[in-house]
Design brief:
The complex is a heterodimer. By secondary structure, chain A is an alpha/beta fold. Chain A is elongated, with a radius of gyration of 21 Å. The mean pLDDT of chain B is 85. The chains are: A alpha/beta, B alpha+beta. At the A-B interface, helix 1 of A face helix 6, helix 8 and helix 10 of B.
Chain lengths: 245, 344
């Protein structure tokens, strides 16, 4: 079985490596300093298990996991993160609190072996990530295009458009695809800055220059960039409410 | 309890002097009406003594009871009652002392309204004075209490601000020690000592200013620990000349700023991070710059302070009553935090 260790502190990784020595079945195929390296290594090695720190440079552990379409099994290891700990408890996810003992580590590995690749654990992990990213007032969105990872500051987002199973995020210079639902963004983005004006559109209120009537019961919002965004009947009343019209 | 109006020597002296003058004046008036010196002196003396007694009583009444605003009747009422008692007592005493002088008795009875009116005026005046005095006393006490409470709250807040040690830092350091114990026990031991010294420094410090040299020594412990954790990426440089090193600053002020810079630098970039701390003295102010790299593509440093520096700003405000002592600037890929400490 292959494992990848992802932690920005080399010493923290060396403890895990040492604790893993007696587990001869598990081979450490890569050690990563941050989430970028982590994504690359996971895509390359397709490990069975990753041992993941949460606070890391640029993108944190949750953001890194979110980028992976095929998520490996995870054992989280963190020193102190009140918020994440609550989320772990809520979703029944095992985690290691640094510094942890060899006994505690072995227990976590045994538990993982017992329920390896279990769909319940995978689902719980997915829910955990959504939960954490949705509630922790994030000021950025992390996207992956091929192997390239881009961090989009929320203040750069002009509007979002539903695209089958994806959401297209439009900024001034580019657009990015993100494997998420519109509902997720409607929840995550600040309600005083973004409004879902249509089943398929969320836009930044400040970008609107004018709203024109269009066919019956619907409108068109013209953005500063020139983009024309359809506004549904319910979207229009939501917009009026936010703008105080 | 408010201090009595008559508790200070100056007021006692004035009070006694007034009583004597009153006695002399009243004796003079009685003498003017044609009575002999003995009668005049006794009349004046008895009246003034009773008046003084009643005044002390009035003052003490209002020491324990202060009428609410616009209840002037409560100020006047004791005055009327006391004036009545005073008039009757004076009349009774003087009549008894000079019981064989029928003419004086008639004079006494005839002067009752005047004696009553004067007594009332004096007592009402005394009552008003007392109320003013005790109200002012109460206000002073309130203000004292308020400033005491504020001082206590300020001290507690300052204490809390200094104690903001990140548990994240502590547990990760312990985890590093765990790693070192197996492979490099000597380094593990060294790190335990550094961590102990650093913690002792954060716990023991009181509010007294320390020299920059001492503060930098303490900061170095912190930097050394962080370098064990992030040695592969973290480089720190501290530059301060000898003049600056002798200047004073509040203890544990720099550590949270540097901690913030390190965190910002380490978590916002993936490459090598240089943290630069430089000190200079400008216009009787110790000026310290802390610089860290950041990624201007993905991070927009907020204007003003932001980035967990609000605690430092609050502390500087509590200590120096100024809000301009902590400033931040983002330039290209370098984020600079500048802290100024006025030297007294």
């Amino acid at each position: 079985m292959r494992a990848v260790l992802i932690d920005d502190e080399p010493l923290a990784r060396s403890v895990v490596r040492e604790y893993l020595l007696p587990w001869v079945d598990i081979e450490v195929v890569a050690e990563c300093n941050d989430g970028f390296e982590g994504v690359k290594a996971i895509m390359q090695h397709q490990p069975d298990l990753i041992i993941l720190d949460i606070q890391m440079p640029k993108i944190n552990g949750f953001e890194m996991l979110e980028l992976l379409d095929q998520k490996p099994d995870v054992i989280f290891a963190t020193a102190f993160d009140e918020y994440a700990l609550k989320a772990f408890e809520a979703h029944a996810i095992d985690y290691l609190l640094k510094p942890f003992t060899r006994d505690r580590f072995d227990k976590a590995i045994k538990k993982w072996m017992d329920q390896q690749h279990s769909s319940i654990t995978k689902q719980n992990t997915k829910k955990l990530i959504d939960d954490v990213l949705q509630t922790s007032q994030n000021d950025r969105v992390v996207v992956k295009t091929g192997t390239k990872i881009t961090i989009i500051p929320v203040e750069d987002i002009l509007y979002l458009k539903a695209d089958d199973d994806y959401v297209s995020i439009y900024t001034k210079d580019a657009s990015y695809l993100k494997n998420k639902t519109m509902a997720f963004f409607e929840q995550t983005l600040r309600a005083d800055q973004f409004v879902r004006v249509h089943r398929s559109y969320i836009l930044r209120i400040q970008e609107i220059t004018r709203i024109d009537p269009y066919e019956k019961d619907s409108h068109l919002a013209i953005l500063k960039s020139g983009a024309k965004i359809p506004v549904s009947k319910t979207g229009y009343s939501k917009l009026r409410q936010v703008l105080g019209l | 309890m408010a201090t009595s109006l008559l508790s200070t020597n100056r007021f006692r002296f004035l009070f006694a002097l007034t009583a004597i003058i009153w006695a002399l004046m009243q004796a003079g008036i009685v003498y003017w009406f044609g009575y002999d010196l003995t009668i005049s002196a006794v009349d004046g003396g008895v009246s003034a003594a009773l008046l003084a007694l009643a005044c002390i009583l009035t003052s003490n009444i209002f020491r324990f009871y202060q009428p609410k605003e616009s209840r002037y009747l409560y100020i006047a009422a004791p005055g009327i009652i006391l004036a009545a008692i005073f008039t009757w007592a004076g009349n009774y005493a003087l009549k008894n002392i000079f019981s064989d002088d029928a003419g004086y008795a008639v004079f006494l009875n005839g002067s009752i309204p005047i004696r009553f009116c004067f007594a009332f005026l004096v007592f009402a005046w005394m009552a008003l004075l007392s109320v003013l005095w005790y109200t002012q006393q109460e206000q002073q006490e309130n203000e004292q209490r308020k400033s005491d409470a504020e001082k206590l709250a300020k001290e507690a807040e300052l204490y809390n601000l200094r104690q903001q040690l990140q548990p994240h830092f502590l547990f990760n350091s312990l985890n590093s020690i765990t790693a070192l114990i197996g492979s490099r026990p000597e380094e593990a031991r060294k790190m335990i000592h550094q961590l102990s010294d650093f913690l002792r420094g954060t716990i023991n410090k009181d509010q007294q200013p320390v020299s920059l040299a001492d503060e930098l020594d303490h900061l170095q412990l912190y930097l050394d620990i962080e370098k064990v954790r992030f040695g592969h990426r973290l480089e720190t440089r501290v530059e301060a000349n000898d003049t600056c090193r002798s200047l004073m600053l509040p203890p544990m002020l720099l550590q949270p700023i540097v901690e913030n810079a390190i965190k910002f630098g380490l978590y916002d970039t993936t490459g090598a991070v240089i943290i630069l701390v430089t000190a200079e003295c400008i216009d009787n102010e110790l000026c310290i710059h802390i610089q860290n790299p950041f990624d201007s593509e993905t991070t927009r440093p907020k204007h003003g302070t932001g980035f967990g520096l609000s605690g430092v700003k609050r502390r500087l405000y509590l200590l120096f009553a100024r809000t301009d002592l902590l400033q931040t600037a983002a330039d290209n890929h370098i984020f600079t935090t500048t802290v100024k400490i006025p030297q007294t």
